[in-house]
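Q: Fold this one first, please.
A: Sequence and structure below.
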Amino acid sequence: MNAEKLTVALEEFVHVGGALVIVIAVVSVLTGFMREYIPQDKLQKKLTKHERFGPLLGAFLGMLTPFCSASVVPLTMGMATMGVNLGTVLSFLISAPLCNFVVLAMVYAVFGFKVTASYFAITFISAIIGGWFITKTPWKNEIRRGEELGDKKADSGCAPVSCCGAEPEPKPEPQPTCCPGTAAGSGETKKPVLAIRFAWVLFKKIIPYVLIGALISGVSAAYLSAEIVEKYVGGDSLLSIIISAVIGVPVYLRIEMAVPLLKVLIAKGMGLGPAIALIIGGTGASLPEIALVSSVLKPKAVIAFITIVLITAVCGGVLVQYVL
């Protein structure tokens, strides 16, 4: 039995870890190119100019980002290095895995329009309120930026020279510089190199958290049985909803995993409210995602993130169970 569980855990670790490594690598490269080719100063200026509406913008951006919870972290790191405020970042982190258009389509396919509309309303509003709330607390600066994320120009191999308005000192040989669009030969050929170098730094920063998350997922798959879930969330009480939200955290529920699982559990007597709470808790703040999010958010912000998602899960379950 122990050998079988270890096999299941190993298979899950390889499956989840391998998939996440590929996804993180691709998204890191995309983030690197986005960072080099999108004028960062203009983007930052727009986001900071409309800082008051940051949580709303973050929630809308999350809606249009069909990534799983783990995949949004490289994009979040990119936002952090641009200087985007924590309210916008937190709203994006909540909205992207919970109420993007792919998730809404899958929830609609299983639960119908009324449940989907309620699910969207509670998750989207929670993303906005959560982002707004964090900006009103002393925790509004609990986000890792610049060197804390490994965003060091020295890592790219560029020489530390004065540029962009400063007076350069004459050198006998041309030196590579870090100025945008500047290279020994052509600035256009330099940007892809800088993008790849930034992607590599980002990938190395995140990959340890990916492996930790995959390990947690493997252990959960092997040792958290469906019978335990059925035993504690088989009813439709408030306690069942709360337990479902909490159980969702150690179970790394990608939406494509959650829907088949919930079909089985609902057929065996699980209430609709606990099912929605499990979806929100599992896809919004699973332990693997918490491990990944910890690479960009500081501890207090991570606590706020978990708390907001769990409250959202409970509220969503109660709304669906007792109001609809």
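Q: Good. Now the second chain.
A: Here it is, same layout.
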Amino acid sequence: MSCEDDDNNNTNEEIELTATNYIYEGDLRTFYLESEINRLNGHIEEWMQIPDSDPGYNQAQENIAAANDQIDLHETEIAGILSPAEAFSIINPIIPPIPPSPSPCICFNVYNSIRNIVLLPGTDQLSLTIRDYETETIIVSTNNNSPVEIIPNTQNSGRFQPFQFEQPGFNGQATLTIQSDGQTYSILLDFQEPE
């Protein structure tokens, strides 16, 4: 490798996205929205049990209507989220397999070898924090100033943000929080070793 190559390492050193080293923001957002829909449906079932003779009946009916409106919004957003293959079809990314769920936790299963988050099309920056669920210790933290890389051959539409684990090889549950485009959401992850 020449000195000239070293001077340009930020453009010459391409990070390959593999089946186990990235996660797609669209998958995280979809999981979050589906979890919210399930939560709202649970509330709707409870509110539907309130008889019309109950003083809280009218409020329950209003809550049901509001929850159904929110479910419709979430379903519309889910329908608009492109899969990585649809969003970046020119590069034909290898979609990471989702590990089997080992427990009854309601969480998104990922490999502990992920080191990149592929951004939704149109997202330029995001802030990512992953905390150990048990201890609240930060495992990963990025911010809106963290570097974003361009995925080659996507006409600059494909972007990803590399990150480093502060606890390499972490296994177990963690809370992932994303701040992007004025919205913040959190989901529970279950980190597992790649097979």
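Q: Anything worth noting on the second one?
A: The first strand starts at residue 22 and ends at 24.
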